């Protein structure tokens, strides 16, 4: 599985990324395990607010790119419509 996700950081900014293991990536972003993006390291804790599942890496990365092109307002609209389960 490939995931595209958005987390909200402690300073209320959004970080968008993709991964093959969302639970592991969230632990890394929050400093539970090594890793995580430099951006989120100084903005912990982060909270998962949106994600989507894709069958290929290419699809997940394309969605990540598309989300990164959105304005904050458009990202908030996307997050508001999210009905997925927390991992």
Account of the 3D structure:
Belongs to the UPF0213 family. It is a single chain. Strand 1 (2-8) and strand 2 form a beta hairpin. The chain has helices spanning 22-29, 38-41, 57-68, 72-80; strands spanning 2-8, 14-19, 47-54. The two termini are 14 Å apart. The chain is globular. It is 38% helix and 24% strand. The chain has one domain (2-81): GIY-YIG endonuclease (3-Layer(aba) Sandwich), CATH 3.40.1440. The chain has 87 residues and is of the alpha+beta class.
Strand content: 15-25%
Helix share, percent: 25-40%
Major β-sheet profile: 3 strands, antiparallel
The CATH superfamily is known as GIY-YIG endonuclease
Q: What's the tally of helices?
A: 4
Descriptive labels:
3 strands, 4 helices, alpha+beta, single chain, 87 residues, three-stranded antiparallel sheet, GIY-YIG endonuclease
Task: Describe, in short, the structure shown.
This protein is 38% helix and 24% strand. It is of the alpha+beta class.
Q: How is the topology of this model organized?
A:
Blueprint: E1 2-8, E2 14-19, H1 22-29, H2 38-41, E3 47-54, H3 57-68, H4 72-80
Antiparallel strand pairs: 1-2, 1-3
Protein name: GIY-YIG domain-containing protein
Pfam families: GIY-YIG
InterPro entries: GIY-YIG_endonuc, GIY-YIG_endonuc_sf, UPF0213_domain
